[in-house]
Design goal:
This protein is an alpha/beta fold and 147 residues long. The chain is built from five helices and five strands. The protein has one domain: Dehydroquinase, class II (Rossmann fold, 3-Layer(aba) Sandwich), CATH 3.40.50.9100. Helix content is 40%, strand content 19%. It has a five-stranded parallel beta sheet, sandwiched between helices. It is globular, with a radius of gyration of 14 Å. The protein binds 1,3,4-trihydroxy-5-OXO-cyclohexanecarboxylic acid (DQA). Catalyzes a trans-dehydration via an enolate intermediate. It holds the Pfam family DHquinase_II.
Length: 147
């Protein structure tokens, strides 16, 4: 089955963007790591990044009937977007939220997530490893549902 990985705004700049916070890993590195981990776990991983809220909403709608799970780093939309949260709730696809940085260690405006209440869980603070842990947890969760 298929897992959709969604990356929100500014994550296309990973590697160049505030490396002190986000490290030197690029989005391409993360995506290829996830595709490889997907192969090991026996799932197909497809990745999409957008800087546009509406494009991310559309991508979530398009996942309906196609993807079994969603792994999302919504970037700053995490803290602002009721629309993304509503889209995830509407499609009812099990979702895991991830962040490279530990959002609770940073500015107070990053402490609140609109997505967390509709997610299975959240992984924050492990850099690119957050995504890998998130994919593993999502697949574990989905396998638990099968049995
Ligand atoms: C982020 C944390 C957000 O607060 C920030 O706006 C991002 C990246 C992270 O992965 O640590 O763009 O989601």
């Amino acid at each position: 089955y298929n897992i959709l990985v969604l990356h929100g705004p500014n994550l296309n700049l990973l590697g160049q963007r505030e490396p002190g916070i986000y490290g030197s890993v690029t989005l391409e590195d993360i995506n290829s790591q996830l595709e490889q981990l997907g192969e090991e776990l026996g799932v197909n991983v497809s990745c999409f990044q957008s800087n546009h809220e509406g494009a991310l909403v559309d991508a979530i709608h398009d996942a309906r009937g196609r993807d079994r799970g969603i792994l999302i780093n919504a970037g700053a939309y995490t803290h602002t977007s009721i629309a993304l949260r509503d889209a995830l709730a509407a499609v009812e696809i099990p979702t895991v939220e991830v962040h490279l940085s530990n959002i609770y260690k940073r500015e107070p405006f990053r402490h609140h997530s609109y997505i967390a209440p509709i997610a299975i869980g959240q992984i924050s603070g492990f850099g690119a490893e957050s995504y890998r842990l998130g994919l593993q947890a999502l697949v574990d969760h989905l396998q638990g549902q099968d049995s």
